[in-house]
Structures are given as C-alpha cells and as structure tokens.
Amino acid sequence: MKLGMVSLGCPKNLVDSEVMLGIIREKSLEITNDPSEADIIIVNTCGFIESAKEESINTILQMAEYKTEGSCKYLLMTGCLGQRYAEELFENIPEVDAIVGKNSFTDIGYVLDEVMKGRRFVYLDNAGYVPNQPRMLTTPNYMAYLK
Question: What is the CATH number of the domain that holds 55?
Fold first, then answer.
C-alpha cells in the first residue's frame, strides 16, 4: 500500500510530517511523492493565516478528487487547521476519513489502523510532543529543521 504526504505551512509542520513519515515507514507502507499513486493521502494543514487556511482547504479538496476518481482509499487531515475547525471540516468534507489534531500526530499509526478498519473519526487526544520518534528527513542531508 502506498502513502502520499502533503505538508503545508511552517517548518514545524514539515518536522511533524517527517515524524509521521518515520512512523509510517516502520509500518512498511511505501511512500510516494505522487498523490495519484497513493492509496492513503495525508494532508498536514496550516490554519495560521487566512491564505494558509484557503491553501489547506483547496489542497484537501484536490486530494479528495483522488479519493472519488483515483486510487486513494483513505484521506486524512492533520495539523493546525484540523485542530481549530475539526468538527466543521469533518461534517463538510465527507471524503476525509480522519482529522488528527496538531498534538496527536505521533499517534498516526493508530489512526491509520482505525481508518483502514472502516472507522471515520476526529482524533484530538494526545496532549503533547513525544521526543525521539522515528523521522524521515525530506530536506537535503546537510540541513534539517529542529523542533
């Protein structure tokens, strides 16, 4: 099964996306940069400023097209936008299978397992950052963002 990750917003989101990719890689899922090939798409959103909110919603809607017309079986939303507007987004974008809060992303393995069992839900449970998580760098080897 292939997974695609779209990371929007600030460097913190990129680090969170890298941690999620590290966790996902341990689940033996193949990572792809091409959302048209992905069985699972995760969009790590930003909700800080109006233009970032618009970009996040537009990206979610674009990725939802892969679910209705392509190979995508599961669509997940993570990050700030999902945290702030979880219930409203969950109700208005039925293609989204799960919304994961900005402090819950380290539980992405659990969320994926539940979504693949057919569960559709909002997950805002985890209260903080857990250090020493696996991480898959998406930046060149000579640089990385710290958190």
Answer: 3.40.50.12160
DSSP category for residue 29? P
Residue 126 pLDDT: 59
- The residue ranges of the chain whose pLDDT is under 50 are none
Residue 122 bridge partners (DSSP): 99
How far apart CA 87 and CA 92 sit, in angstroms, is: 9
Residue 2's H or E segment, with its range, is strand 2-7
3-state secondary structure 86-140: HHHHHHHCCCCCEEECCCCHHHHHHHHHHHHCCCCEEECCCCCCCCCCCCCCCCC
Is residue 145 assigned to a domain? no
- Residue 37 in any domain: the answer is yes
Domain with 76, as residue range(s), is 2-123
